[in-house]
Structure formats: structure tokens, C-alpha cells
């Protein structure tokens, strides 16, 4: 019994070392250098990641979302988002559409503590959950209005915030049609979803996608032949939020209801 | 040249000198204060990206877990939970992957964790397994009957209502209360063991409902009857009537 | 951190319908109401001053320098509420270092500096230069040196030089009018260009801002003129006051028509947001928009001034009615700014719910700081009046 445990231990250690050496083997050879300046090239080599090779986007299937809120919770843990219910990088909304046409929406604490049952005298037409997140617009109004260049679209299509350069004027928050931005109460700078940029450059999935138990969230490359997103877009009827505003979101929804705004 | 200088009014000279001083000061200050790496890739600081990716990982990801816990990963990979990442239940464990001795993730032992996904809610998609935890074996930890890495019911359910409780409870209040599920849904026995592989059949035509509801049939007078040829012949019955609660508006 | 949470928690219970969780915190508060209010006064006062120089409205000569100094005093204070509302005021200089060309707000720095340096200061300097030199000669001690340095140690008061000053003032005024339009029109554009917010997003926004700015500027100079002149023991020039009220009346008519057009256009087009906006206007904004802004701040003063024009009342009564009307107009215009800035944030961008604005008393975003910022320009104006007396009798002709 004790022996087998020890064996397990050494086996795990061995596997871990094997992984490390595999990573090192990938990192050390010189990469094809793209980009004009030295800094970006160093950065690409350091992380074994070339932003010019990627363009990220997300797919969300409403029919698969069970409203467990694991995305919202793991996002807060991964990204040090304050626990209070006023600051979210992602959250889940619940829609109740009644037969008389009334629409009731709620998102208590962004769904992190789950949802409680709703008792209503009215008869229900349908009900569903909608996860919300920064739409990572290809034509982002927040970037357009930032007065100092503290928020920007990166080479690989992710809208990021430079928290150390942000002056906290909140114009970007006013310009975002999706309510996806907030002022971080500690840094007093604007904050928002980064598609877990620190994870995707290391080849990992964003925390919300990693922790979605039903694969309601799909993550991958936009406009590449073999990518989960392209399959998602091919297999489903796709919509985006507020298409009339021409923000060109890179978060695509399947089975989206007209009441969702 | 000197003439030209003299022809400029005195006040303009003074204002111009002041202006030149201000503009020069602005240019000097600006040249020194703009971050060196600003504008290399776009209208932002390049080092902002370095600062963003320097953030620590909290979640290691399923692939990392399975490198050591390959036994569990293998078992889970063929189960209903194959898409549920380890850290959904065990919590963030990147630290554990870095140094397994420093920190051990916990496994949920109580009845609080599983209902986060499996408690019945109207808004959840149909077909997703749900329970009403207050009446579902109260006080018994989930794991005493279900293995989270390969969740199947402890015994093969005998009644349809074991899984389709919501439909069953709706039907039991309706005029169809005494119509058995199997009357309309042909179901292979294997459905109880692998529900997704052996999906029960559904009626396909109007004539199926007409077996009871056609005015040409003679049976119990309490059953409502319609003319199969005249009553909305273009539609199938369940486009308007919900078979599990036919009296619903 | 805890302060913010304490401030936000009670709001959770006052939300009606559904708003996005990040919208619980209302992002632009009272300070951002004050900012367009102050710049509006600046633009209005300057345009009034330019009537004298460019359009040669002789009756308004007594208010010319007063208008210029009023514009300067309010312009110097105007950026302070913006600065105070920033999360990082210490980084505000970045707006000059790396302005984002696509951002309306980034252009603020340049529009502001242009207006302050190239228009207002320059016009005041040329207009006062001769007086500064002469005053400096008759003063002693510190004040002599302040006046001397203000004149940039200029000495030339030959006829040719003074004539040049006059010409310069005229040219600067001509440049100044479009600049004043830009200054306040751009403030309107900051709001009007936000497509995410249907309450703000409107092409008419800059122009409505501009005309309400002119209204508020004229009303302010009218208040100052009819308040200060008796204090100095002088007689109010009724021709000047009547002219001021006349201009106020006409500009108010234009402003009112534009706002009515905006309203009718929204109701007639009846877009996606109309339901939530009508809930907003008939509910939370009813008092501040319908009662204060339109009834008290617009219709009552319009009727009052119209009655004066028709009934030809005696001078004393006219003075009082003008003064009271101008006060009501100020209240109305402040309310206009409130309704745009706060009102535009009271409904959710989900169009499914309304929230509330909770004002605090202390703290940077609080009522106290806002009151100070509203009074500060008047103190500054007092100092400017002492240093650069705008009265006609102080002028060295």
C-alpha cells in the first residue's frame, strides 16, 4: 500500500519533469521573427507565442447554459475581480418570458451563488440563461473614446486595458453598449474581460471556458479553417448582441432570443 | 531685415516670445514624459501587454491535471462528466500543479456542490439531469450514491419519473394523467442504461392522436373529439397542444 | 474600497427592472454636471462680448469687459470638476502627452488650451494693455509689479500701437466666435457621439448644448451687471439691460425650438429605446426635466420677458423681472445639464430597468466640493474685477 503510493509519487514527479523539459525544448529554438521592434520579438520568444498568428473569439450556446455561474465565479478568482456584486467581467442573466409578453430578467450576484426558483402566478412562455461578457468588439467604441490610449485592441484582436496608464475618466464605460466595464475599486482604473490574456498566450483556455461544465462557451480562432469557433459558426445560426450598433462583436451567440439586449 | 523686425509692433514681439517659451516648454516636457515604448504597436504602451500577461494563473486547466492524474482523467473521459473540467468541482489548482506538496485541492463531500448544476430550475435546458434536492434522498451526501468522476444513477431506474420528474408531475395533473409514457413514446430497455444512445421515439403524425381524439372513433365520451379532416389539417397536434398538459392554453 | 461598497449596496434595492451588474455604480456624478454648466457659461459670456466688437452692438459696451472677465474666471475653474472626478488625477497630463485622435475627450486639452491661450487671454491682454500700462504708472509697490508683469512689461502706448490693439481684438473676436462654438459644441459632442446611450446619442446634442450655453452666459452677465452696478453706487444703463434681455429672449426661443425638435423627433421615430426613455422622463426625471428645466427655467422666463416687451412696464419693475428671470434661467440650465448627464445614466443599456443616483455630501464627488466649485469662479471673478476693473469709468480713452 505504502509502496504503491510512493510509486505514484515518483511517477508524478517524473511526468512533471518530462513536461517541463518538453516546454523548454519548444521555447529554446529561435522562432521566426515577425514584428519590427525588438521588444515584441523578445516577448514572443519569451512566451512562445506569436500574436500575429492568432485572432481570438468566443462562442456561447444559449441552449447549453445551465446557469450554474461557474464561469462568473472562476473569472473572479482567476482575475482578482472584487467579490462584491458590482464588479463583473462576466455574468449570467436569467430570462423569464411570460405568456402576456412580460420579460423578467435577473442576475443575482452575477449568478455566482446560483439562482433561486421564481414563483409567479403568470404562466411562463419560456425561460433560459444568457452568459454575458465583454464582446471584444472588432470595432470597439471603448477604444475609440479612450482619451489617452489606455485601452486598445491587441494584435490578436483582444481589447485590453493598461491599468497603469488609465486616468479613470470612465468615458469607456459610458461608451460600452454591453455594460462590460467597471472601475476597479482598488486600482481606480477601468477593468474588463481580457479573454484571460495571460492564459491564452500560454496556450490555455480562458477561465470561464475552462470551467464551463456544459461547453456552453467555446473559445478559439476567428476565421481559421480548423477552429472550434469556425465549427460553432458553421453548425449554428449565429447572432451577436446589438448588431445595429456596428461594434462587430467577436463573441457569437447561438440560439439567442430577441429579448436579449 | 532689421527694418522688418522694427516694423513688428512691440506688443506682438512680447506675446510671441511668451508663446515660443510656452511651446518650447511643452515640447521638452512632452519629449521627456511620453513613455518610451508608446506607439510602437498602436496607440498604447507595449509594456502594458507584458504587465497583463505577468498575471498569475489560478486555474491550471484540465490538461495539466491529467498529466499526473491520468487514471481519473481516463475514467472521466468516457463519462457524462467528460466536459466538466476538474477545477469546476475541486477549485483552482494551478498552485497544486506547481508544487503538489504545498497545497492540496479539496473535493466536495457535502450536498451543496452538485445542486449548483443539478438542482431543478425552469430555465435549465430540458434533458439536463436535475433533481429537487429537498426531496431527493435528504441528508445523504451525493457521493454515497454517485461517483462524480463517472456519474450514473446507483441503480437502473425503473420508472420514467426517476429522471423525467418535471414532465411526470405536470402530466400527473393533466387529463393525460393515466396515459402511460410508453403509450406515446416507444422506448427501448437500453434507454435506462445509456439514455443518450437510445433515445425514445415520439409520435410522428396527426393520426397518432386521432387514435383517441378523432370523431370517427367510438370510445369514452369524455375524451374530446375533433374532425381529423377539418380541424386545422395543415398542422400536427403538438404544434398547438402540449401533450403532457393538453388543457393548457 | 469599503466606502464604495457601502455606497453601492443600498442602491441594489432601489433598482427597478433589470440593469447590468456593472451599472449599479453610476459613473458620472455631480462633478460632470458642473463641468458642462461652467463651460457653457464661458462660451455664452464670450459670445455676448463678441456682439459688441464684431456686430457693433453699442448698447452692450458696458458689459463687454465684464463678459470677458466672467468667461475667463469660469474657464479657469471649468477643468477642476473634471480633474476631481478622475480616478487618477495625477495622470491627467497624459491627455496632452498621448491624446487619442479618435477620442472626443482627448481633444479637450487642445480645444481648452486654444480657447484659453489663443482667444480669451489674448483678447483680454490686447484690450487691457494700454490700461495696464497707465494703471501701473499710477500704482505703487506689489500691485505696480503685478500690473507691469501682466502687461508683459510692454510700454508702447502710441496711437499707432493702440490702434493695432483694437484691430487685434477685432480679429481675435472673429476667430473667437467659432472657437467658442467649438468649445461648447464639442462638450455636446462628448455626449452626442455615444452611440451606446440612446438618450445622449443625437446630432442635435452639440447644437442644443451651444444654444443653452449662450442662454446661460447672457443670463449670467445680466445677473452680474444688475447686481454689481447698484453695489458700486452707479445707475443701471437700461438700454444695455433691455438689449441683454432681448438677446436672452431670442436665443431662448431658438434653444426651446431645438429642444422641442429633439423631443418630437425622438417620439416620432419611436426607436427601440423609446419605452424606457418615456418611463424615465415621466418618472424619475419628471420634476427636474418637465417642471424645473422646461416650465420654471424656460417657459416662465420667456413669458415674463415677452410681457415686458408688450406692456412696456417702468424701469424699476423691468429690472426686477429681468433679474428674477435670469436667475430662473440659470436654475433651468443647470437642470438641463443635470438631466443630460445624470438622466442619461439612470436607465440601463439593457433598456430593461432604471437605477437611482445617490449623492454624498462629503468626499471629492460630494455636494460640498461641487458647491465650492460653483462658487469658486465668482471669487476668482471678484479678484479679477479688483485687478482689472472692467468698469467704463476705469478705462483710459
Task: Please provide a written account of the structure.
- Chain A is of the alpha+beta class and 261 residues long.
- Chain A is built from eight helices and eleven strands.
- Chain A folds into two domains: 2-53, no CATH class; 56-261, Alpha-Beta Plaits.
- Chain A has helices at residues 2-27, 38-47, 70-79, 141-145, 171-175, 197-200, 207-210, 228-235; strands at 56-61, 90-98, 103-106, 124-133, 151-153, 159-161, 182-183, 190-191, 217-221, 238-239, 251-254.
- Chain A has a four-stranded mixed sheet with strand order 9-1-11-10, covered by helices on one side. In chain A, strands 3-2-4 form a three-stranded antiparallel sheet, covered by helices on one side.
- Chain A is globular.
- Chain A starts with a helix and ends in a 7-residue tail after the last strand.
- Chain B is mostly helical.
- Among the domains of chain B are: 2-53, no CATH class; 180-249, no CATH class.
- The longest helix of chain B has 24 residues, at 10-33.
- By secondary structure, chain C is an all-alpha fold.
- Chain C has one domain.
- Chain C has helices spanning 2-8, 30-54, 64-77, 79-85, 94-97, 107-138, 141-150, 159-192, 205-231, 238-269, 274-282, 286-311, 315-341, 367-387; strands spanning 16-17, 353-354.
- In chain C, α2 (30-54) crosses α9 (205-231) and α6 (107-138) packs antiparallel against α8 (159-192).
- The chains are: A alpha+beta (261), B mainly alpha (249), C mainly alpha (397).
- Chains in contact: A-B, A-C, B-C.
Report the biggest beta sheet of chain A as strand number plus sense, adding barrel if it closes.
Answer: 4 strands, mixed
The rounded Rg of chain B comes to: 36 Å
Seen as an oligomer or otherwise, the chain set is heterotrimer
Quick one: how many beta strands of chain B? Answer: 0
Distance between the termini of chain A: 58 Å
Query: Mean pLDDT of chain A, rounded to whole units?
Result: 86
End-to-end distance of chain B: 97 Å
Number of strands of chain A: 11
Q: Quick one: CATH class of the largest domain in chain A?
A: Alpha Beta
Number of helices of chain A: 8
Helix proportion range of chain A: 25-40%
Question: Could you give a short account of the major beta sheet of chain B?
Answer: none
Q: Give the class of chain A from helix and strand content and strand pairing.
A: alpha+beta
Strand content of chain B: under 5%
The low-pLDDT segments of chain A are 21-37
Give the overall average pLDDT of chain B: 88
Shape of chain A: globular
